[in-house]
Amino acid sequence: xxxxxxxxxxxxxxxxxxxxxxxxxxxxxxxxxxxxxxxxxxxxxxxxxxxxxxxxxxxxxxxxxxxxxxxxxxxxxxxxxxxxxxxxxxxxxxxxxxxxxxxxxxxxxxxxxxxxxxxxxxxxxxxxxxxxxxxxxxxxxxxxxxxxxxxxxxxxxxxxxxxxxxxxxxxxxxxxxxxxxxxxxxxxxxxxxxxxxxxxxxxxxxxxxxxxxxxxxxxxxxxxxxxxxxxxxxxxxxxxxxxxxxxxxxxxxxxxxxxxxxxxxxxxxxxxxxxxxxxxxxxxxxxxxxxxxxxxxxxxxxxxxxxxxxxxxxxxxxxxxxxxxxxxxxxxxxxxxxxxxxxxxxxxxxxxxxxxxxxxxxxxxxxxxxxxxxxxxxxxxxxxxxxxxxxxxxxxxxxxxxxxxxxxxxxxxxxxxxxxx
Length: 421
Description:
single chain; MetI-like fold; globular
């Protein structure tokens, strides 16, 4: 009978240096490395090399003239990042913090409606008594299945002032019902009419909300402490907890001082609401288009999760006398969480970087009032040809998205296993 023997270790394999251990491991796994070497080389040239090049030119005064190898760009250090953050790009309608605030507002409002509408329709179509559920599901997926730029171009035609579908529809409603809706509205170009304007109360909201969240975080830290269950220091809790308290507390304190001293013009937190606090009509136009485009994805994810819930749970809940609301809060929503949380995180990133809807409907207009970070980065490259500044701008956007992802992951605990969550 054959026996399996263990290969004896070579001298120095275990007690050698890290470099020796690496060489021994590489020698033993040489064949697998040969198999994956082509893919590594491809990834190196199509992914890592462009990223390294982008980081390099972010520290240079790189423009159109520097595309020629014989005309290298001058090294400027962190000057591109300074210009990006403090409005030194000399670009029309460019202001980083209002742009960032509008991007946040755009993302939050869109994702909220995507989740609410998608989940509501998924729950409605999950009921057994609904006739033609499969037909409805197939029809509702069409907006999400169509190419985004085609959808955006269709909505652009609908919002046109002259002979646009929306104005023609309102004209037809006026003729049939005797109403008096405006039928010549410049949906994409009107700059003065802002249906909602909360800029006058924004400073007080900043103080109250930042202070309240800071207090809640502090109370949670006092309750849980800064150590994990094993007694070790929880680094993530320190970073997100103490860091959040410091940032939010500073925003509340300095905004309160600016209110007293009348120095709100230089307050960066308040300036983030210059566009988001009073959006133009074009914002509502692209908002409606993107909501129509995005909720089918959430509906599809929620439908799959709902169909995976065992019916026995609801039958047992009926026997125990649980109401429909109790079944929703204790069975449906907890079991939807593992599917919906990653979908919400993905939807947040997609919406934050939604280029097609903004660019093909409004092109960021009027006067940059609907620009997002990604459309502004495109303009820095395509229109302004400030490649160094655009590279620095993209790096800043990357770190903003990284921070959003880390905070969102920390709050939702999306990457934890079931027994850790």
